[in-house]
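User: Could you check the structure of this?
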Amino acid sequence: MSSRAPQDTGHHRLWSVDEHLADVLAAVRPLEPIELQLLDAQGCVLVEDVTVPVALPPFDNSSMDGYAVRTADVQGASEEFPAVLTVVGDVAAGSGELPTVGPGQAARIMTGAPLPPGAEAVVPVEWTDGGTGGGAASGMTPASAAPEGAAGEVRVHRPAEARAHVRARGSDVQAGDLALAAGTVLGPPQIALLAAIGRGTVRVRPRPRVVVLSTGSELVQPGEALAAGTIYDSNSFALAAAARDAGAIAYRVGAVADDADTLRSAIEDQLIRADLLVTTGGVSVGAYDVVKEALAAAGTGDGEEPQAGGVDFRKLAMQPGKPQGFGTVGPDHTPLLALPGNPVSSYVSFELFVRPAIRALMGLPASQVSRPSVRAVLKADAPLGSPAARRQFLRGKYDPDAGTVSPVGGSGSHLIAALAHADSLIVVPEDVTSVEPGTELEVVLLG
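Assistant: Sure, the predicted structure tokens are below.
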């Protein structure tokens, strides 16, 4: 079903936030899976079920430093009447050839080392004299200083049940178990499990490559000196960081001058490394709105159906972020989202439209595509005004314990300082023009 409403009002109609988002998501397909090394797959979505090839742990092993013994030999042992056992060797983690533990014998064993044949339990070294002939040991004698290469005798001061301090083969996972299901996002614990079961590579959808271009001849890169009438380019940094935060690999292209040909060639240059292009600035109705000039030529202009490979510029029933552009460019029909240039407008637009597009490219389920939202009670000194027939997004500070949200800063789309202190967006619906303190509203959680 098409997300587009009837075009009866021509190209001046307002799109709703939901229509625009549905239009964007309808055009975005998850990236093709590739095989990646484990660390390169961090943050990616698994596309296959991974089963366990070998049991974990692969053998019975000791959970303590101590002595591997037969239970009959230590039955009834006490400090007064210790069991005296002959030490037949050392078993370290990684040991291949293991000594056999016979009646009256014990083997020194380290944590993680395989249980030697004949042994039924492990007594911790603290339950023994450590082979020194003295009182209770506090730890193992280093291998280099062990008596006669860990031979000699050991006195055991306590009995041990069968399997005491032994981690059983397969007690973590069994061979053939499902380790990770397709659709799992690979974080550090999942990568640890893959490594533990011997997987060196894994099949995932790669992280999308997102190129962020900011436009405007007035923009100067941070660290350079400002001349009269110039400002620092914050948008390309904000959006590249936001793209990375969403799970993408982000490439930032510093400010492109207000010239349509320059911008077109900059976009063509970037297509080679882009799964998604994001521009910021130049989408309003001014004489120098260069993104519109450069890209609308490929489509049909204002708010009509874009042709194949065109970018459609439209007005949304929202504040901030009314002017938006969306379409595809280049031979591979790479999706492009053109966001407004005001810092807060561009950031809010990113959260509502670009982040979901990135998450959809990653192949995440629909439930994880957009930011989570909650209901919260407005905590404010005075009623909040909102324009009629516009969905307003105000910066907010959410208090999960109290279930309240407070506005941060004003509603101006250039107030970037307030954005830095906000952790949420307060949503005022289209049909509401004034919100009293104490009203319950939808709150989109950022971060």
